[in-house]
Amino acid sequence: MSNSLTRIWDALWGRGEFSITVPSMDGALRPNVRLDDASVTLAAPGLDDLAVAGGALYFSQGEKLFALDGQGKEPRLVKTWHAPISALAVSAGGELAIGFDTGGAVIRPTTDDGGEVPIDLPQKDASPTAMSFAADGSLLICVGASGRRASEWKRDLMTHGSNGTVWRVPASRARAEKIGQDMAFPAGVVADAAGTPVVSEAWKHRLVRRRSNGSWETVLGDIPGYPGRLARVASGRGYWLSVFAPRSQMIEFVLREKVYRERMIAEVPEDFWMAPSLRAGRSFKEPLQGGGVKHLGIHKPWGPTRSYGLLVRLDEDFKPVESFHSRSDGKRHGVTSAADWNGATMVASKGDGVLVALATAGTQA
Amino acid sequence: MAISETYAKWRYRLVPDHVVGELLSKNWIDNAIPVFILALLLIVFGTVIDNFFTFGTFSTMLRQMGELTFVVLGMTLVILAGGIDLSVGSVFALANFLTLFLLNYLQVPVMVGILLVLLVGALCGLINGVLVGYLKLRAFLTTLATLIIISAIVEILTFRYARDVVMYTPDSKLWDLLAAGTVLGIPFNFVLVLVVAVAMHIYLTRMRKGWHITAVGGSRRSAYNAGINVRGTVCLTYVISGIFASFAGVLYAARLNSAGSETGAGLEVTVLTAAVLGGNSLGGGRGSVAKALLGTFIVVLLTSSLLRLQMPSGYNSLLLGGALLVAVATDVRWLKNRHKLLSRVYVSPTYFAPTAAASTDPGSGSPYEINDRLAEAEAIGLDQVDGAEDLAFDRQDNIYTGSRHGDIVRFFAPDYTRSEIFAHIGGQPLGLHFDGDGALYACISGMGLYKVTPDREVIRLADETNRSRLSIIDDSRMRFADDMDFAPDGSVYFSEATIRYDVTDWATDSMEGRGNGRVLRYDPKTGVTRTVLPKRMFPNGICMTGDGESLFFAETWAGRINRYWFAGPRKGTVQPVITDLPGYPDNIRRSSDGNFWVAMLGMRTPALDLAMRMPDFRRRMTQRVAFEEWIYPNINTGGVVKYDVNGRILESLWDRSGEKHPMITSMREHKGYLYLGGVFNNRLGRLKLPNADPNFNDRALYFGNWS
């Protein structure tokens, strides 16, 4: 009784769970323009996930898988599938795992085209958002939302989706085991030094680690954006966290406005929603926020934005150490993946369709 | 239409929310709480006490009020200047005793006696005034000390002369009048109160010295810096308080003719309660005579009604103490939160259903189909302009435009690379037009309609219109003159975009969805300006149709262009001619082929169009979300549209990327080129128009052979 009264009171004044504060980007997350300063390796519209194996950088772009070797500037097409690739992973033993937006995943050797084996997932239409091999050879798979494709993430966020799952495929490649459920869009996974899975729970803005009893504990919370894929730093000490979209007060507000949100989903085309995006401002039909108005030809870098570029380096305890930004006026938004390769950190900016190389001295092996 | 939307439509049509904000911005709103309390008490006592609403009840109350009100008025004055006077009770008692002593014992003439008593009262006040005002002692402790000293004197005197002073009563008409006289059935002392109250109200609100008192109470330091004699003003309030308290003592003596030692005991609490309960702020600077009267009436009503209810005597003081506590608490909370409340409720969105916007999609075949024709425009004044909302040409083809700094800037023909400040006006110039004599007319935001002669003399033409009936805030002053045009009779029709926001936050007006603006007419023969069309949604561009009896005006936030007939058989009618614009129309200008150019300052977005139908959502957004984050009209992309007199769209020009001309607030065709302005842009632009008349000058349409 008193609880529901408190809720009504809070709703009236915008307090408690109805407050719409967003953590500020400070400390290790202090904004800079290091992503925009990074050199472009290649322009690839639709570029999504990255993985490194045998000295080559694999990247997915729509239905296609490409590889870039140490010297070549021209990417080599590995294979074209029937459906868009939604996740990639490479094992220490040279196995390549590929997940599809339409559901399902396969494992194949990196070396040749033969021996493609489907992964045995009990959930047939599961659309992986991220995959990662653990040291013991098992494969960890995140499924953002049951019954939704990975590419439908915006709709899942705006409907408060929380039926994501996490799976473990044993090294024997037997049937996958469900190790996490009812999660708010798991969008990234990595096994920590002890081999324990750590998952980005995007809609709850946090990283969670699986306890031995099967429950999940928060290892990093209050991230000022929606955390996505995780990758180990080449040196082995620390992780890359790609934050694919920023949180903003206005969107937090819309998320709490049921009637507006439902009508927006029903009546407004998805590209024009008041929702986060990998790249905002492409069309004038997208909503504009007051601080985003251009003055004298200047787009304020600190202005509110629905898309952003952010890559965070975490230490072994998953605490942020440094970060790489592309701000409101930047051109490297929607960072979906990062991987250390060839003496640099390669970053996929899906929002702007470019692969950039960050000079990150000290993080290499 | 959904049920919730129908509800929203009627809810916002019937209950105008913006009134709350406007009421809160009024000074007299401080009276709201005391009036409410008074009404409540009248209802309660009227029900509880039999025969409450009779002449006798109120006549007795008014006589009691007479004495008390004088003391409260004095106290109000002291509080208004930021002090407090606790000695009023003892001054009152001293005056009572002295009156009886002078008139009864020494048998001094009544008039002389009263004046002597008032002099003593003034002296008591002066002691307080000098101590507090000039020696800067704390008002509370100082007046507490004088309270004790004066009561002690009264007690000593009373002990010595108590019996002597009541042996005789003076035989005087004046004395009888003071004691029990009435004027038209109203007790004479209350008539005196009314006379003094009116005089004091005029003193406080209309006279210099009265303003000084409020100013000192509001902020001592600012008052001092403004050159006000702070010490003298403070001292004066205590002197007046002393005089008023002693006069109340005279009235009391006349009425009761007794010199008990209990006289005036506890009076300061009653008086303080009355003053604060009426809404006079203890912090100083906020108060009025009306509040003092209101508070006194409440206190008298309370005490006399309790007597009639035959409550034991202690309850009376208990209630007064409680009332004082409530009043002080309310005062503090109200003062602290009034501005917060005001800023919270000022932006008051209402229901507005935008029409479906016409398509701009490539390949849709729509006349608004998106293109990049404006990207070819060459820049003028790149990184030199700031706030170039509109532009105009003189006979030598020089360009005139406004700036955010309140200047009119001139770019010299033919290459427009050199510029100078043509005139400084002080407010940001918006719509600009030359008249037949070569004078530049300008709508200046925050100032009104101005004219700059070729000799650079700045002349104010209009800065106020008629105040609309039933408006709470004074809307006669012009806040946002936006665009204008000349009618054939020489009068100027101009738009005022909104009366609720200034030019710095003009886009905030879009959050409201209400007709906050108006179209005005300035008559050069009489110099008078009158509102011709009130309650329009951000009326912006104004342009004569050329038929001599009608004009077009754009309603920006409604995405609508209307035609208004100001003469001829259809005089007074308004007809929407374009209702489905995909963007927000701004200025309208004539084209060389007899049609009209309209600037699109921004584009409509589905997310905002939806929000316009949901006023509750926008209200919560404006209250909870930082204003930089609000959903705005997309004013980062603009364009120019050409239409004919019937509202048919002929062509459109866009800058899709928004690199060069993100917003277009105005354009003017001149000699084969289309010139572009945008209030937030860093440049003016010009675009060669194919097939346009290379000699076209829009002034020729108004003033014949202009060049």
Blueprint (SSEs and pairs):
The complex is a heterodimer of chains A (365) and B (707).
Chain A: H1 2-13, H2 34-37, E1 39-43, E2 47-53, E3 56-61, E4 64-68, E5 76-80, E6 85-90, E7 95-100, E8 105-109, E9 117-118, E10 128-133, E11 139-143, H3 153-158, E12 164-169, E13 177-183, E14 186-191, E15 197-201, E16 206-210, E17 216-220, E18 225-232, E19 239-246, H4 249-256, H5 258-267, E20 288-289, E21 309-314, E22 320-326, E23 335-341, E24 344-349, E25 354-358
Antiparallel strand pairs in A: 1-25, 2-3, 3-4, 4-5, 6-7, 7-8, 8-9, 10-11, 11-12, 12-13, 14-15, 15-16, 16-17, 18-19, 19-21, 21-22, 23-24, 24-25
Chain B: H1 3-14, H2 18-24, H3 32-48, H4 55-80, H5 88-105, H6 110-134, H7 139-161, H8 173-180, E1 182-183, E2 186-187, H9 188-206, H10 208-218, H11 220-225, H12 230-256, H13 267-277, H14 289-308, H15 313-345, E3 378-380, E4 391-393, E5 399-402, E6 407-411, E7 419-424, E8 429-434, E9 440-444, E10 448-452, E11 458-462, E12 481-486, E13 492-496, E14 517-523, E15 528-536, E16 539-544, E17 550-555, E18 560-565, E19 574-578, E20 583-590, E21 596-603, H16 606-612, H17 615-624, E22 631-632, E23 639-643, E24 649-654, E25 666-670, E26 673-677, E27 684-688, H18 700-703
Antiparallel strand pairs in B: 1-2, 3-27, 4-5, 5-6, 6-7, 8-9, 9-10, 10-11, 12-13, 13-14, 14-15, 16-17, 17-18, 18-19, 20-21, 21-23, 23-24, 25-26, 26-27
Architecture overview:
The complex is a heterodimer of chains A (365) and B (707). Chain A has helices at residues 2-13, 34-37, 153-158, 249-256, 258-267, and strands at 39-43, 47-53, 56-61, 64-68, 76-80, 85-90, 95-100, 105-109, 117-118, 128-133, 139-143, 164-169, 177-183, 186-191, 197-201, 206-210, 216-220, 225-232, 239-246, 288-289, 309-314, 320-326, 335-341, 344-349, 354-358. With 365 residues, chain A is mainly beta. Chain A has one domain (20-280, 303-358): Neuraminidase. In chain A, a hairpin with a 2-residue loop joins strand 3 and strand 4 (64-68). Chain A is globular, with a radius of gyration of 20 Å. Chain A starts with a helix and ends in a 7-residue tail after the last strand. Chain B has 707 residues and is α+β, with helices and mostly antiparallel strands. In chain B, the strands form seven sheets. A four-stranded antiparallel beta sheet of chain B has the order 3-27-26-25, with no helix packed on it. A four-stranded antiparallel beta sheet of chain B has the order 4-5-6-7, with no helix packed on it. The relative contact order of chain B is 0.09. Helix content of chain B is 40%, strand content 20%. Chain B is built from 18 helices and 27 strands. Chain A binds chain B through residues 14, 20, 248-250, 253, 257, 259-260, 263-264, 267-269, 272-274, 281, 284-298, 303-304, and chain B through 4, 383, 386, 507, 602-608, 610-611, 614, 617, 620-621, 623-637, 656, 658-659, 662-663, 680-683.
